[in-house]
Amino acid sequence: MNRLLIDVGNTNICVAVFSEDEALFVKRLETHEKWNQVSFSEALRQSFLEYVIAPESVSGAILSSVVPELNSILVASVRAVCGIRLVIADMSTIPVPIRQYDRTLLGRDRLVDMFAAWSLYHKPAVIYDLGSCSTMSALARDGEFIGGMISAGIEMSLEAEAEKTAQLPRLKAEPVETLLGNDTVANMLSGEVIGTAAMIDGVYERVRDEMRASGDAGEKAFGEEPEVLLIITGGLGKLILPWLRNKYIYEPDLLMKGLLLLAKLHES
């Protein structure tokens, strides 16, 4: 049974087809305002042709999108190419309980991440997704979303430094080898990459301690404080891993895993 997963981010649209738990293909397209039903349908058809997969073999499809103006285009394109309904991941289709949060502005990608993290681990967790922005979502011991944080992503910060100053160069995020840089480029990269790692360590420790104090992490077992997982995901997540001091779980495909689980859920 093949399932079509589409994740629309601010930079890329990730299109994937899975057969059970195996990815048959994962393709990235640029997110832009010029997509229409004709152009996206053609891109989708070409993806199936490239990987020699029949569109009619897809029995389920699901969409996570942070660009809602594209949703209707994608729904129509999937129906035109595959002949099936595209399920939109939203408050009504993602079973994540939410505590006192303005739901109207909560990113669907964060909800999918939370659903995936809880489905995979069933433990309280602090989830960091490092993409255009760095988002943090905290899950309590019962899987309830209790709050989070949003900060500028690594590349967004590098772009802002170049745009708002006269002499700093425009850079792309890349791995950092040393803590202290010995030139301007190294300083900018270490500031953003290692600075992000330090932020995540510090925020995680504070949120973990607060969750333990409030009972959101569960009860002490044999005198030990309850565990709160630190889960790292997102396209830029791998850059900060060497600089983290806390134990972490790296799930580079957390959102896709969540979409696949949701696709299976909505077929039953």
What are the salient characteristics of this protein?
alpha/beta; 5-stranded mixed beta sheet; 10 strands; 37% helix
Q: Can you give me a brief rundown of this structure?
A:
The protein is built from seven helices and ten strands. With 268 residues, it is α/β, with parallel strands linked by helices.
Mean pLDDT: 94
Order of helices and strands: EEEHEHEHEEEHHEHEH
The helix tally amounts to: 7
The tally of strands reads: 10
Major β-sheet, in short?
5 strands, mixed
Strand arrangement within the widest β-sheet reads 3-2-1-4-5
Residues in β-strands, percent: 15-25%
What oligomeric arrangement do these chains adopt? single chain
Global geometry: globular
What class would the helix/strand composition place it in? alpha/beta
Poorly predicted regions = none
Portion in helices? 25-40%
- Determine the N-to-C terminus distance: 13 Å
